[in-house]
Design goal:
Structural class: alpha+beta
Number of strands: 10
Mean pLDDT: 88
Largest sheet: 3 strands, antiparallel
Strand content: 15-25%
């Protein structure tokens, strides 16, 4: 069985409780199992009210898919290369022209990707608008750019399923595929802990409810630094 935990292909140990799957996450460009339990990390997150969305815009997090890791490939193609199988390129080894999302972690379906068609999205596991309302509006641009391009917070998913998520948090949206919910919530916890984002009371309760069914779910780690290189700018 192949799942992604915290935006990477995961090595999986099945855990038959409430439809959840416990996964030890690892990958060359994404998080590795940090050794700590995601449930304990969720309980440690700061709880505050949601700040106003006033002032939010995508460009406050920099140009989309900036090459913050300086590997000469944009972030979107990096994630496509990481998450798709049967990958083919257009010129060189950066621009992904096709591949298969097998399976899509959110729906459990197999999705064929072809460049120029919108069947696959790169999702921000913690939506940028949600981050803005829970601390990111007070950051400097460098940290916001880092969040927007961090592999820890990125996942290739079915576009139609992702559009239903919007900027929802764990209290308002979870993947339809119940088997992926533990890994998904663990990834959200990891991102919020790494970037010191807070959660609402309802959000933390939802996180704890999911992770209580898989108490040995590992907290993903890794990804990029929380400060983007100085050559990148945002409004």
């Amino acid at each position: 069985m192949r799942l992604r935990g915290g935006a990477v292909t995961a090595a999986v140990v099945l855990f038959a409780v409430a439809g959840c799957t416990e996964s030890e996450t690892k990958g060359s460009s994404g998080p590795e199992g940090a050794g700590g339990a995601a449930l304990a990390a969720a309980k440690s997150l700061t709880v505050k009210g949601r700040a106003p969305k006033t002032g939010y815009a995508r460009d406050r997090f920099g140009t989309a898919w900036a090459d913050t890791d300086s590997n000469s490939c944009d972030t979107r193609d990096d994630i496509l290369k990481r998450d798709l199988r049967e990958v083919k390129f257009t010129g060189g080894d950066c621009k992904v022209s096709s591949g298969v999302l097998e399976p899509d972690p959110y729906s459990g379906k197999d999705i064929t990707y072809r460049r120029g068609r919108s069947q696959v999205d790169i999702d921000h596991i913690v939506a940028l608008s949600d981050a803005w309302q829970k601390g990111a509006k007070y950051w400097d641009a460098s940290k916001r750019i880092a969040l927007a391009n961090d592999p820890l917070n990125l996942l290739a998913v079915d576009a139609s399923t992702n559009r239903g998520k919007g900027d929802g948090d764990a209290a308002t949206w979870l993947p339809p595929d119940h088997a992926y919910r533990c890994a998904y919530v663990a990834a959200q916890v990891a991102v919020k802990k790494k970037y010191e984002l807070w959660v609402t009371s309802a959000e933390r309760s939802a996180m704890e409810k999911v992770l209580s069914a898989c108490p040995n779910e590992k907290l993903p780690s890794g990804g990029n630094p929380t400060k983007a290189p100085s050559r990148f700018h945002a409004k």
